[in-house]
Design a protein that fits this description.
binds iron/sulfur cluster; iron-sulfur cluster binding; binds S-adenosylmethionine; alpha/beta; 14 strands; 3-stranded antiparallel beta sheet; TIM Barrel; 12 helices; single chain; 9-stranded mixed beta sheet
């Protein structure tokens, strides 16, 4: 089976799955000329395990629309536009509520006392505006989005001919009925966060006993309901020794993908800028990613590796909406460019596009100069 990524009368890019691995092929009279220009984009797909293979479509990753599909074609168009400097907020995270029963030590959401939520009509308006601007991935974020009444209505509001929908959760209350309701509403991917493969350590990081068990049953119920499931680990010095344990757990649970991100010094973790992974930690992680791709088991999605290829997503491919309606260039960057109750999202995206600082090829939140100049965070004296 050939899965078409891109097609015009002179050039075609398609994927085949050979022995469990994706292979990228090109065809057409313009192929010898065009392939070298897009080879770095194609490299990302070539030679790795996909998340799920169906007869008529390929889910390369839980973070990307199925190939082929209308949202995927829109994503390809925005990637082509990005090459000529015209950026689209491809991925949006909407923090629909600040409410959360957990108390994670690293939570990116700054502590506020008002525990706000966005009204359903406001969320729908955000979705409408962003989809009109070309967004292809709508993620319901929090706080804990599963405590939001009427989440299913928001999920089903995402126009599946233009974007896929996703949910970030710690898993609280995701019983079989809820998983089936979300599946029926059309949820395209569900991400369950995991900070340790060990129950005690995960509960410690999440600030509440029982979160690990809830995460495990959320994963099981979601898989049983036929949802596409991603396990999401935010790497810190505290869990970097558990890479193989995470993989084993992801394999045992049968998730479709295991994703890794490095903790960002923001929110409750804002003063932990010095606690970054060492060069040796990165090397270990790099070896682990290569090894995990070579063995049977779920696909690995490594955000640090993606960022090396694409640069920082903030302000280029990502927009984040807070429960107060503020608009940030990224969920981890508490820098408001305006508010949805006062401005159109297009205006705010335009403001962000005028900033040259977002051309960064590394995570800006780890750059002390950026933190000081843009966020007013002075680093502690050594
Ligand atoms: C803010 S949470 C909201 C959704 C849900 N409550 C959860 O924990 O999955 C979204 C994701 O951000 C991650 N996260 C929290 N704090 C972070 C930080 N300081 N740096 C990077 N990711 C962070 C969480 O682990 C989670 O995977
Ligand atoms: S990371 Fe998620 S689960 Fe943890 S406190 Fe923040 S919102 Fe709640």
């Amino acid at each position: 089976m050939k899965y078409t990524l891109y097609k015009n009368p002179f050039f075609k890019v398609y994927a085949v799955v050979d022995n469990g691995y994706v292979k990228i092929k090109t065809d057409g009279v313009a192929s010898p000329v065009l392939r070298p220009f897009v080879s770095n984009m194609l490299e990302y797909f070539d030679g790795v395990k996909p998340a799920k293979v169906e007869n008529d479509y390929l889910i390369f990753s839980t973070w990307i629309p199925p190939i082929p599909s209308k949202p995927f074609s829109r994503l390809v168009s925005s990637q082509i536009n990005a090459r000529i400097g015209r950026y689209t907020p491809e991925q949006i995270t909407i923090s629909i509520t600040e409410q959360c029963p957990n108390n994670c030590v690293h939570c990116a959401l700054p502590d506020t006392n008002n525990k706000k939520s966005l009204e359903p009509d406001t969320v729908k308006d955000i979705i409408d505006q962003c989809l009109d601007m070309g967004s292809t991935f709508v993620i319901f974020d929090g706080g804990e989005p599963l405590v939001y009444d009427g989440l299913e209505n928001l999920v089903s509001y995402v126009d599946s001919t233009r974007a896929i929908s996703g949910l970030f959760t710690s898993g609280v209350g995701l019983n079989r009925q809820k998983a089936e309701d979300l599946k029926k509403a059309g949820l395209d991917m569900l991400t369950v966060s995991l900070d340790s493969a060990k129950e005690y350590n995960h509960d410690m990081m999440r600030g509440r006993e029982g979160v690990f068990k809830e995460a495990m049953s959320a994963i099981k119920n979601s898989l049983d309901a036929g949802l596409l499931v991603n396990m999401y680990v935010v790497l810190t010095k505290r869990n970097i020794d558990e890479l193989y344990d995470f993989y084993e757990l992801a394999y045992e649970m049968g998730v479709h993908e295991l994703s890794f991100f490095e903790v960002v010094p923001t929110g409750r973790w804002i003063d932990h800028e010095a606690e970054t992974l060492s060069h040796m930690d990165y090397e270990r992680f790099d070896r682990f990613v290569k090894y995990a791709n070579s063995i049977k088991g779920p696909r690995i999605f490594s955000v640090p590796h993606i960022l090396e290829m694409t640069g920082c997503f903030a302000g280029k491919k990502w927009l984040h909406f807070t429960p107060e309606g503020d608009v940030y260039p990224c969920a981890c960057m508490p820098l408001s460019y305006g508010n949805i109750y006062k401005n159109t999202i297009k205006e705010l995206w335009g403001r962000i596009q005028k900033e040259t600082v977002f051309d960064a090829d590394y995570c800006l939140m780890r750059d002390s100069e950026f933190r000081e100049n843009y966020l007013g965070i002075l680093e502690p004296k050594k």
